[in-house]
Design brief:
homotetramer, 375 residues, alpha/beta, Rossmann fold, Dihydrodipicolinate Reductase, domain 2, 2 domains, 9-stranded mixed beta sheet, 5-stranded parallel beta sheet, 12 helices, globular
């Protein structure tokens, strides 16, 4: 038997949303098993999480250094770490873990600033260890199909991209663990909505088009009174081939849940995908025909087909998309190729996006060059 | 019997799209009858249209002046004119007709420039004749219901408006009568897409919210090579109460037909309407409940209820919405009240919108004040 | 000019739903004009309708015979009649009108019994006058497209048909003019729901497949207490080629408006159309691809293309579908061909359907042969 | 730590669809871990599956008896078995496992005949061991919400149930492991489509309504030439309170994937759920209002809320619904209550449904009483 890979989690303590999601995603295909963790910066809370995750209490550690040392020492120690803390703790966690020799998966955005992301890139380069970033939406089979078909010329030269990410859960005062840190600059970084979900939208746009943004114009605002970080953002973008883009992200659109939607139009077609209806892809062709591509269809390419687990009509969703990233990461750890797994290049671009958008908006919304990044 | 009102058409000759639409809309409720017209600036073509419209050949005139004189002289002469020419002929047509004493309905946008619209406003003021502008989408019953519910506080204070108007029919070279004049500055005015459909979106946003735009930032482009007028537009807007708005209009999004969609979010709710699925209105409330309001529902207010002709589930569409404007106009001519009929105030604002957006975009997309208009 | 055809209406007085619908439909394309009517069996009410329909009061007659005589005598008299009374008055109205030489359009179902329909067929044969039956749903462009594509082999040999017609408006006690006559055997005939909407569903199934039903099994019930006629029906059907069919019709499904939906499956594909979303047709192919065919698409065949008035994305609905039947009828009156217009053959089959279903259900729901009809 | 429960699988060898699904579902919430299995009746193939499932090769057994003995003997032996073989092997597997003291989860339908199900019921009664049946669709949060709201009076007394289960994957010749056994009476039992998916639909109807079927009328057919078992079924049902029901199941409707849909109508409302769009529930009320209830809404009751893992808008699907049944089963094993887990009572009724439908259809489709079952 090829054994399961062993994962240690950093973050994800009691009340966390994304920690359990990483756990489910990592284990879904039985290529990975959660074995250890330092789930909170408070030792007590961290140890209490052993019960939540049903792991060996001896491996729910009180501190990161302790965990890294102990897991290094065990014969059956963790093979990699998964970082799921609030943004400001990504870099310290990754620095310690990677310097201790652990490959890492990390929740997005990569860090809490572009400068931090550059430091992280240096660490990854020096340690030469596998690194993955959970831009979840790139894990959806039909997003990968969309990328493949666009690359294959299905819509011709790209002219226009519209990506929207409406949410409404921060329309009122931010209450609860999930909301509080997201509106706190000390824990989120300079971006609020633009960092939390804008980066997903930005990443998705570059992912499906295969094009890089070269300039942008941003208008961010904190709509809810007394909020420090933006909760509503509009960004105009220009892509490297001259294509035009619009990115809308909001967390104050009451009633919107997680309505990420991307539409890409080229000279000869258009393609549309919606996260809340993720198993269908609309494909318009300039001859006036429209096709619905569905998960499970025989016509799907290998990228999508290899990342579905059930026949068409048995909906797979967010957790399965997330699991596809861990499947990619497991493949990398096993020495295989996983070209679609987001990594530090995406992380750098995401952090550059936040920084550029925040700065551009602050200075009056003129067109601003996207920084050159060597990845 | 209260007799039908008699309409004379200006424009709408062979090959026209919008002329026959006005004819159907005007006659749908049997309050109005088409009796005469000068359907083309070429006398021959105008007379030939008698057959298309099945009117008395003697009343298909060769020239506008001729028609106005003849219809004035007849005892059963036209009660009003309907102007459906390309934009650059709106003002001359309206000037002649209103100075001859005819009330007028006019296709949008009102004129081909803001200056012309101001002149038109003067004519209307001086003649003191009824004037209506066919911003069709305000005629949909559920758009009116949306306006009524928002005014009634259904979503609280408005914070955000997103209005999108994607089309794809000008993604290729502009061919055919409909396409050609729309991409020609001499006939369309300074705006392409922004004038043809952007004004509809702008008007709809102000209509349903009851708020005026005070500033905007615009980015317009001619995406198709060698095109002179914009065919793709993004506009950021600020409303008088501080609410934020985004307007997207495009005619190069392949596969999009007439996808006008408006979403309005307030402090306590959100409301969404889509032109291609016009008989449903989504209403989100901050308590987490979502309602679908449907045409024909017993809960509809009088504005919507009075403008549907069939029970729920018997779809009414574009022509019926258009007819609702003519019904409003007929009411005005009969001395009744029709507060929702778009008029010259909308026309002035629409032309100011085009002018401001075009200028702002040309000068580098900074925030630009919307002109003060006395209407 | 080719003049408009002149229509006289029988039925459709104050409070009527379907009378005004016929009026709008007939006039929509300006091929027909309503000029006269006997709108009620009460002379007073009939005359009062002149104002509703805005016709010459002198031509709102107090009695049918009076109207037929007067209109015959006028040089500009009616060219045909339109019968929109409750079912039990169809035959007497048509008998008188056709014997007086008037072609006729008639609302469905044709009569209030199969025997009456046979008598009507005799009258039509003897008078040799044009006759049309308003099975409205056959007028939708995409229904016609569906018929054309199926005939063309798009889904192979038909194996299965599912047609559903859910409504909910009779879930409570029947109140109001529309409801009352529909639940009264004296005015509706032997069928309630099965006659009112079941016949539409049956007709649609035969229309789009081009196949005739040869046997059926029916289960009808009056669900609402004290109701005399059925308000809920399930019918199993066998088609002439051996294909299986299911027809569901109900008027007690709370919240359903007019949810007619037909799905046809063959050896190599499937096709789906929904009345409440009438401008799209789903086409599944056995290779696993799915196409959305939309009204206005360049790929539409002539049957559909010739019966749309607006470009794609400008929704046409129920009234426009209805108008297509009048356009067909006008074509017939002008000596042209209109092969898709439902006529007495459909009427006979519809009445046979009601009679067979009611009898089969009463006798215990066994399989029953559909009567042979010579049309 | 409360340790994970240990599962041994029976069936699910190379090429299986449902085995891996059970594995994912069981482990998703980390309450259960797959530790052993006899994955095939061929020893070689069974052992080879250790690699597929990444379990200890020593615990991939060559035969059922061997596994039961070995796992009994281990201190860390399996806590229960999961039976995922073709139908004809359910009873022998369960008999052996339960007599050896293992609680059991079993794929549906329970057995391959009603008589077998009765024998199974006896075994369960005698061993007094927990038993669960994976009627997956009862695991969807919004199905549970639907049941809760209906029980709570949201639609009043139930009058009508329509449950449809269209699939198309057996429209051609049955090819592949999944298809072959389903069309083989020796492995499937007397029902084809009616057993494979009809039982799901039947179970769902009884589950959400809380009502039992007392009579039915069935029409089953093998549409594809030379097929021995039914592939298309229509069943009329009567519920214990007199409500009417219709069940449509088909596996020859080309293009349909897994279109299970249930609609329930009562005196004061209607409720609709669709498996392919599982995170929304439509609720019509007789006052003409319609609500969309969404997964994650604050208004959800405890049954639904306790069985979702992500916030609204992060789609959960088939695997998560399946996992909810295992979560219920784990609760039972831990001594907690799980009133919604389907068990042998559902199994008996499902097998009675198949037997009654097959017999009723064979004898000419008359109304047939549903057998009384003592559970």
């Amino acid at each position: 038997m090829t054994r399961r890979l062993r994962m240690a989690m950093i973050g994800g303590g009691p009340g966390a949303f994304i920690g359990p999601v990483h756990r489910i995603a990592a284990e879904l295909d039985r290529e990975i098993e959660l074995v250890a963790g330092v789930f909170s910066s408070e030792a007590e809370r961290s140890r209490a999480a052993a019960d939540i995750y049903r792991i060996d209490p001896a491996r729910a550690y009180g501190a990161l250094d302790e965990m890294l040392a102990a897991e290094r020492a065990r014969e059956d120690g963790a093979d990699f770490v998964s970082v799921v803390t609030p943004n400001h703790n990504h870099l310290p966690s990754l620095r310690a873990a990677m310097q201790a020799g652990f490959p890492a998966m990390c929740d997005k955005p990569a860090t809490s600033s572009f400068a931090e992301a550059q430091e992280l890139a240096g660490i990854i380069a020096r340690t030469n260890l596998p690194f993955g970033l959970t831009h979840t939406y790139t894990g959806y089979p039909l997003v990968r199909e969309m990328k493949a078909r666009i690359a294959d010329g299905a819509i011709g030269t790209i002219r226009k991209v519209v990506v929207e990410y409406p949410q409404g859960w921060l329309a009122g005062p931010a209450e609860g663990k999930q909301a509080e840190w997201r509106v706190d600059p000390a824990r989120s970084g300079a971006g609020g909505c633009i960092g939390d979900i804008g980066t997903h939208a930005f990443n998705l746009a570059e992912f499906v088009t295969g094009l890089r943004v070269t300039r942008l114009l941003a208008d961010l605002a904190a709509v809810v009174p007394e909020r420090e970080l933006d909760d509503d953002a509009t960004v105009l973008m220009q892509f490297e081939n001259g294509a035009r883009g619009v990115l809308l992200a909001s967390q104050i659109e009451v009633g919107e849940l997680n309505g990420l939607r991307i539409r890409v139009y080229g000279e000869t077609g258009g393609m549309i995908w919606k996260q809340e209806d993720p198993n269908a892809l609309i494909w318009h062709r300039i001859d006036g025909t429209t096709q619905i591509v569905r998960a499970g269809d025989a016509s799907l390419g290998e990228w999508a087909a290899a990342r579905t687990r059930t026949p068409g009509g048995h909906p797979e969703g967010y957790l399965e998309a997330f699991a596809n990233l861990y499947r990619d990461f497991a493949a990398v750890l096993r020495g295989e190729d996983a070209p679609l797994l987001p990594g530090i290049a995406d992380g750098l671009r995401g952090m550059a996006f936040i920084q550029t958008a925040v700065a551009a908006s602050r200075d009056g919304a003129g067109w601003t060059d996207f920084p050159e990044i060597e990845a």
